[in-house]
Amino acid sequence: MSKRLILLALLISVLFVACIQAAPTEAPAEETEAPVEETEAPAEETEAPAAGDQVEVFSWWTGGGEAAGLDAMIEVFNAGNPDIEFINSAVAGGAGTNARAVLASRLAASDPPDSWQAHAGQEIIGTYVAGSQIEALNDLYEAEGWLGVLPDTLIPLISQDGNIYSVPVNIHRANVMWYSPTVIADAGVEVPTTWDEFFMACEPIEAAGKICLSMGEQWTAMHLMEVVLLGELGPDAYNGLWDGTTDWGSAEVTAALETFNQVLEHVNSDASTLTWQDAAQLVANNDAAFNIMGDWVDGYFSGDTAGGNLGLVPGEGYGWAPPPGTDGVFQFLSDSFVLANGAPHPDAAMAWLKICGSKEGQEAFNPVKGSICARTDCDAELFNVYLKSAMEDWASDTVVGSLTHGVTANDSFKDEINTALGLFLGDLDVAAFQEALVAACSSAGPCQ
Ligand code: GAL
Asked: Which atom of ligand 1 is nearest to the CA of 119?
């Protein structure tokens, strides 16, 4: 070591001790290893980290493939941003049912996290943009060249008046029917492609003491309902529910709701007490034949057992198919992250969003999460056989949006549908349910 370096090292130690005394808990150890140039900087630089040195990110990814995916992305973030502390404020609960309630009260109290998980579509535009709760990200898109690598179909769903409001990390498929190869083979049935075939298949399955279709708490019933509506109405009339061109009071909607009612006769009686993981696990354990759920189930089924997943081999431990009537249609949703209006740490939040939109971040996140990249340039070889099939379908199928996961309706319309659904799950009165849906469309939906 040269004399000059020794002197500088001494100077650093002195400054560091002074700094520790001034701010004992906040000076990170790396500061003692600062390169030579940094030792020549003015004393202020050695003081406690600026407010930009942490980022609070809010989501509902706390278990299984969800947490593993988030952790993988956080690792990429930490590697590129060693001076920013990542604060993971995830709140447990599938589909964000709990998390979004916590978020809403924080936003109402002007206490936003820097960045939060939000679904592309009406959840962003009709809720957060409408409430002026998030910032436009056009400069970031331009700087990172993202318009060239994100699908054209996605950008309008996160934009308003030329402003782009979120960074999509993935594409999930909502309409997947997971099945137990063992249960259906034992019952001697094929995977049904229509609801009539499904009802017929349930007979031997139930006769063998198995659940035909596993379901969980209320949001999973909404998920099932939207898939039945899609299968029964077809993509055009299904889309019309969200833009006002399909009449919620029509005979075709009545017929679809009747089918939904009939499907509910074949679900487990303890559904309301189960999470989506519990319900999916009934298929993995060969207690149920089918489960209709988004492809986060693939992350849960195939992920590492060490991370709380089931470690099954896709195609062996579980199978998948489009739910009845939805072959050729990809009912999608996209998780994205936003920048809070008034974010406490806007620079650090931008550093996080850069990772969310990056190829490296998305390649780390998606294969574990059970989703495909929102970006179009990810390496397909990183993904398992199910996700490869999802990539092909995403590229070739007719694409429609999910209600339960924020694409087609804003929070007020969705909340009213959810209230009507809650009553229906209690009384199974199709006519009353349909009336409530018609009323929801008039008071909060496109029929206003
Ligand atoms: C969805 C979300 C997915 C997955 C799922 C179950 O709303 O977009 O990423 O987490 O909920 O929790």
From this structure: 8
Residue nearest to atom 12 of ligand 1 (CA): 94
Q: Ligand 1 test: best mutation among 59, 60, 170, most atoms within 8 Å of CB? A: 60
- Does 177-331+404-444 match 54-173+335-401 at the fold level? yes
Cα 119 to averaged position of ligand 1 atoms, centre (Å): 9
Residue 27 has pLDDT above 90, yes or no: no
What is the CA(82)–ligand 1 centre distance, in A? 29
Residue 50, pLDDT score: 54
Under CATH, domain 54-173+335-401 is a member of which superfamily? Periplasmic binding protein-like II (3.40.190.10)
The pLDDT tens digits for 34-51 are: 333 333 344 344 444 454
Nearest CA to ligand 1 atom 11: 95
Nearest CA to ligand 1 atom 10: 95
Neighbour count for residue 247 (Cβ, 10 Å): 15
Render pLDDT for 281-336 as a digit per residue (tens, 0 to 9).
999 999 999 999 999 999 999 999 999 999 999 999 999 999 999 999 999 999 99
Pocket test for ligand 1, best of 97, 371, 405 (most atoms within 8 A of CB): 405
CA of 96 to the centre of ligand 1 (A): 7
Which CATH code for domain 177-331+404-444?
Answer: 3.40.190.10
Ranges of each domain in the chain: 54-173+335-401, 177-331+404-444
Asked whether the whole model's pTM tops 0.70, one would answer yes
Per-residue pLDDT of 166-221, as tens digits, reads 999 999 999 999 999 999 999 999 999 999 999 999 999 999 999 999 999 999 99
Pocket of ligand 1 (CB under 6 A): 60-61, 66, 94-96, 119, 172, 276, 294, 296, 333, 335, 405
